[in-house]
Amino acid sequence: MDESVTPIHQEAAEAPQHSARLPWYAPVILIGVLLMAAYFRFTGLNWDDVYHLHPDERFLTMVETSIAPVNNLWDYFNTTTSSLNPNNNGYTFYVYGTLPLFIVRYVAEWVGQTGYNEVHLVGRALSGLADVLTVLLVFAIAFRLFKHYRLALLAAAFSAAAVMQIQLSHYFTVDNFANFFVYLAFYFAVELLARDEQPQSAPPPSEQTMQTLLTRAGENLGIYVLFGLGLGMATASKVSAAPIAMLLPMAAFIRWVSVPQEDREWMAAVLFRNLVVAAAVSLLTFRVFQPYAFNGLFSLNPAWLSSLKELSAMSTGDVDFPPALQWARRPLTFSFTNMVRFGLGYPLGILAWSAFLWMGWKMLRGEWKKYLLPWGWTAFYFTWQSVNFTRSMRYQIHVYPALAMIAAWAVLALWEHRTEASGWLGKNWRKMLAAAAGVGVLAGTVVWAFMFTRIYTRPVTRVEASQWIYQNVPAPINVRIHTGDQVYNHPQPFRAGLAVTYEQPYRYQYIPQEDGQLVQVRLPHVLGTGVNFADQTLVLTIRGDREAEFPLAVGQVSGAFPAASDPRGDESLVLFDVPVEARAGQPLYIEIRPGVEGGSFQLAGAIQMGIIRVNGELVEEALPEAVAALLPGDRYSIRLTNHPAGLLEEISIPHIVDWEGQTGEKTLRIDLMNDEPEQGLYGSAEVTSTFTAGADARGEGYIFRFDPPIALQQEKTYVLSLHFETGAGRLALYGSKHVNESSWDDAIPISLNDYNPYDYYMGLYRTDLNFEMYWDDNAEKLQRFLTNLDQADYIFITSNRQWGTTTRVPERYPLTTEYYRQLIGCPVDKEITWCYSVAEPGMFSGNLGFELVKISQSNPNLGSFEVNTQFAEEAFTVYDHPKVLIFKKTAGYSPAHVREILGRVDLSKVVRLTPAQAKDYPGDLTLPAARLAQQRSGGTWSELFDRDSWINAWPVVTVVVWYVFIALLGWMVYPLTRLAFGGLVDKGYPAARLVGLVLFALLAWWAGSMGWAVTRGTLIACLAVLASGNLALFWWKKDEILAEVRGKGRYWLTVELVAAGFFLFFLLIRLGNPDLWHPYKGGEKPMDFSYFNAVIKSATFPPYDPWFSGGYINYYYYGFVLAGMPVKLLGIVPSVAYNLLLPSLYSLLALAALSIGWNLAVPGSADEEEGHKLENERRGLLAGLGTAILLQVLGNLGTVRMIWQSLQKIVAPGGAIEGANPIQHLLWGVQGFFKYASGVRLPVGPGDWYWIPSRVIPGEPITEFPMFTFLYADLHAHLLALPLTALAVLWAISVFKRQWKWADWGELAASLALGGAVIGALRPTNTWDFPTYLILGVLVVVYTALRYATPVQRLSILPVFWQRAAVAALSAGCLAAAAFLFYAPFSHWFGQAYNQVEIWKDARTPFGSYFTHWGLFLVVIFSWLWWEIRDWMDSTPATALRKIYPYRGWIQAGFIVLLGLIIGSFLLKVQIVWLALPMAVSAGVLMLRPHLSDEKRFVCFVVGTALLLTMMVELIRLSGDIGRMNTVFKFYLQAWTLLSVSAGAAFFWLLPAVQEKWKPGWQTAWQTTLTLLAAGALLFPLFGGFDKIRDRMSSLAPHTLDGMDYMPYSEYADNGQTMQLDEDYRAIRWMQENVEGSPVILEANVPEYRWGNRFTIYTGLPGVVGWNWHQRQQRAITPGDWVWERVNQVEAFYLSTSREETERILETYDVRYVVVGQLERVFYSGPGLEKFGLWENDLWQKVYEDGQTAIYQVLD
């Protein structure tokens, strides 16, 4: 036998031995466990008292009662005629398994319980029985698998007490049936492994025939057959159980690897045969027990497939299906957390999943055979269900028993763990821990199960709430019976619906509630009852006086008035040709009658009077419902039954009204009579009143008292008779009216005690009021809300179905969400779901005029201790213990107030999302109310930045403190930096400053993202955390670090000099031109500075949007966090800090480039470098400085081209040189040169020297490069990301050079974590960069791990390559995970709109433009590649070429493909491919060179990547881009970084060869060419730098570091008028110093890049709207109209003379300050500005005035 093979039985033998026999007491304990399981499952089986409150069960019950047993097998299998087929009985959408359906039906037939109120109880009993048998299977599986009866008993006990299994056992659903068959199949898979005999050995070769293979019975064929049976029955119960099929191949594989190597080939054939047999059996079983999934023998039924597809579509959530809303935005962990908290309970949940991880760890260590089945099944099925859209813990039912087994295994494994160590707990501490865990978890789980089953021992909440309603919510007639010390309410109905004839018309005195014009009357239900008329005419008249001869208006409607959609008749609308003037409080008299005698109708429902208000809005006022009102002399009688014995003292009627409004008194008498008339009258009670309407149109309430009281006998039937005894009019009686939430939920009250609550005519609580919460939020729904609230006395909420789901998608349901918040009075800092989950009467104070008067909640409990399960997923509570809430209208209800509150919801912002779409939709990009309030209250400018403080008073001090702080930050984090960058020669010291900024910002940002206020205290705490961690690292590695300090002092000093040099260089440039705006080439500094200020001022993250009040910045803003946190900590004035940040970032980029060049130039790692220290320092310094110069000092060749074109323009006709031939260009250039030499100026304008080279490609593409980026000085995302990209490259080089030589796993983790933090920061800083550098980082990790990782002992069963591959995959996964997880809050909030690419078909880049931009890099890299390949060829003997001979076909094909791509590119007019593609391919080929250093391989890869990026933008662009402007811009910058560092290294490597090996002629030519190119690239910083310094807003502006100082010296003309900016300067300074918090301001909005929004720019305060296009671009996931609306509203505000419109705009955007300055007077001149004086000290007060500039504060 192969010694490397461990058979299953041998592995088991080597494990601790346990007897395979059960001791006598084990079956006794098992029976006890099964009895406990039965107790929990059968307690309260009829928990809903036959009210069928589970909708899925209700559906199954209806199906079950509709099908019938068949007479023979032919009928059974006949899909089209079988009486067992639900499709043949009206249920065409039946997607459950049919096996449970058949089992329940036939058992119900056997026990005679097939009725609708019976069969579901049979189903519940069988469901519980199936789960008890599953518990038995758990015992059997665990015992066979682990050979330990104690373990098996514990597993069975865990499963017996699992609450989710218990709950499902109380439902007649298919889940438990499927689960039983799943674990039956599971048992047979385990049985296959657990057989004690060895697998049969192969027969002799002479006997290995097909006949032997097919006939030999070995390998337990019967087990495979039984597994197939279990699998088939499981899938016939529930199709989603099909994955259990995976267990049999897994078991077969384990057996296969357990046999000797020489027997495996034969064994594989046997196993394959057995698996085929099992598959065939399972298919046949499925065919038998799910017969109607087929048409014919094995043809699938299209109807069944169609139903499955429809179900699958609903399960994805990408459908408009209300129940799917509960899964919107649920995290991947949702089912896990619910399972742990509720489905298993915390004790078992924590133990089970901890055990799952432990078992997985043991599998990695080689003990995988015994654990693969339970662990693999749990892992697969749980993951599958967790990533599905519907992440229900109920759908995880098939892993609960497996988890019970795994949990029990952990307890016994811990008990039997061998240990020699004693420790302070003694030698047996593991046994003690195991005993405590086993006993404690089992006890806790049983207690939780007992608590949960208490919900089945009391009335379900909907029943309990219904009982309360009957006793407390008044019906039309309420018989109050005194039964000792209690009063029993016996509600009675009053007939609804009114018969209308010509002789007895409907008359009503209508009193309008507000002024307007009555234009229509809506009749909700009209039913024609005249038998002699096919069509009738209904005539409605309006009179101003009851006796008036001529009506004010007449309307009519004709038709048959059928009951098409409602048995009460359909809706009819009566329109008036002439509107009726309606005055609030002045009565109008309505009459409705048939048009001719003999006609008759029946009216029902509440008639709606349509009035057009003064403002043009149509509103409807509801009249009391049409009921069988009493005329004088009429009687209304009802039978009084089912009452208790007691004294009848009174009857209350909540509302009685005389419809006609007759002024005289009327008497209404109630007689209580015997059911047998001859026995006479028991007593009477009467009330005399005018019965006028009053405040409630239904009239007041009255009490009819019987004196003396009447004794009622319980079994006796009485007659209650109401008699309109005296008076004139028509009396109508009304009870309470409630409003339901939705048609999708079960209504209350339930019909108890023979009460009929909902009958159309005799229902106690009939209502047509329904919010229909799932309908779209719009104006119609708002009106529905208002109408329902006006008419309702109560609101019944019967579960969390609506408030727990619609509020999850507030973008679609903003009105519904606000309604729920206001109804209960949920505080803004609380989730609505939390408020309703914990709500008790009196706990909150609602704002809609309703109060919570009753909740019915059934929590799992143990005595007084309860667990609130409302926080579980909906399905856990909504069926058997939903929370019912009943709200009652208060006396303070005000329709106007409700309309005001709900009317504030902006329904124009509704976004119709499906539940699945909601997870990718971040919302309307506005801050939640609590976050917004926190932002508005914080960020006071004067508290953050004191201009008179020592750090701001003296600029030199400011610069020094700033520079030293950044340096100290780097020194502080050096211990961590060197740990993560340990592969570098310099240990990453130059990058330490940047690492410090990244980590400091990350800590602060996470604090703000979690809702903690980011104050100076918070930032100091973040520094303290950083310092503490690095101090610990320093102490751990102090010897090494101190040695570095001593040994690398000179190098560190060099680094500091370089840092200071680059900082001072650029500081001088900023001093030359510190202005933060320019009217023509100001760029996007206004937006950047506004965002920068907002980020610093924001209390939390995401930061509020200063250009969209109420919103947050939906842009890659994280760079401002990186830059802003030190500014906020130090309190440096932002306009000064801006001009310090640019030199700092320039210096940080230079340091990263220095380290990149240094580490690429110096071979080996830090440990190998010591031998040639001095030489290496010299080489590294030159290479590093060269790389930095190439990256960020030199420009492209655009200045050279600009000079050449300018010379031509001097002499070209009209200065136009486009379209000329090359000879003409040459002639013009020469002539122009002589003209220039003679004194003619070049046609170059101010700013052109730094602007034009950044646009070398014709058209719209931007071709920026770092020197331009910094010189232009927009603190934009790409600038802020540049140092991070260099740091990411440096980290990748560190991993490369380290060659996977980690001191321990901690070092690897630190490096991957920091790499993830750096690369991940690119996503929220400049998203374009993130994919490129993440791919770079991942590939570097994979390459180095595959090449250098040492074998992993725990994976020794795998070949070395696969061990390394596992390490590579895990490490790369950790890097990517860190990159995403560190910045997860950004992803949570960010709404990504532009995420698709499209083919670019327009003009491509001319080769001349391409070379102008990349020429210097291309020449250097091309030269190096050519030399390296030549050297490779020269050093390779001819005999070595024979090795590639077998691959010559592939090589030839490659050349053909390359040639084809080049030719194809010319056909597509892509001019750059002929050079870029061969260079990229050459770089790739060069990577294959043996013995090539890792540094050179890295550069080859980077070169190839960069060249591919430059080719990519010729073919594709980002959808939504302006042409390909930003596509070229962003990817060209990435390519510049990669090519510049590559060119720096290539130049350094190539230079010695040029000097030593090249021929003098080639040497001279190359050096001359390179010198000319470098000189040309150097022209940009020279010409462009001086041009930028000269191109200022005003020549009088001082040279300071404050970017605002240009304003007092500048003027600006716009719209034909000139403005002095000094006024705005002083007003901005006033606002900075005097405005508290971050309130909204309103100022002029003008086109982009002009002087608009200047106050939001320089204060960071939120304005109503900023730059139109940029806001639409950044908020592109929302309709662009939202931004346009704000732009228009700003203009409307300044131009408006309407007080109402002005107040509405101020309130809509919560404006607190209004600016009226020169710009506002220029753009909004006219009478609208006069309002500021007219309404001063009324609507606002003037708080600042200077010349033409005033600031007004809006009054509360």
Shape: globular
As residue ranges, the low-confidence spans are 1-19, 420-425, 1166-1171
C-alpha-based Rg, rounded: 42 Å
Let me know the average pLDDT: 90
Main beta-sheet strand count, sense and barrel state: 5 strands, antiparallel
Helix content: 40-55%
Return the domain count.
8
Give the DSSP E fraction (strand runs of 2 or more residues): 5-15%
Q: What is the SS-derived class?
A: alpha+beta
CA-to-CA gap between the ends? Answer: 91 Å
Number of helical segments with 4 or more residues: 61
Q: What quaternary form is this?
A: single chain
Number of strands: 34
Q: Can you characterise this structure?
A:
Strands 3, 4, 15, 18 and 20 form a five-stranded antiparallel beta sheet that branches. It is built from 61 helices and 34 strands. The protein has eight domains: 8-300 and 331-451, no CATH class; 464-473 and 736-921, no CATH class; 474-491 and 628-735, PHR domain (Jelly Rolls), CATH 2.60.120; 498-626, Jelly Rolls (Sandwich); 942-1194 and 1268-1389, no CATH class; 1198-1251, no CATH class; 1395-1557, no CATH class; 1610-1754, 3-Layer(aba) Sandwich (Rossmann fold), CATH 3.40.50. It is α+β, with helices and mostly antiparallel strands. It comes from Ornatilinea apprima. InterPro entries: DUF2298.
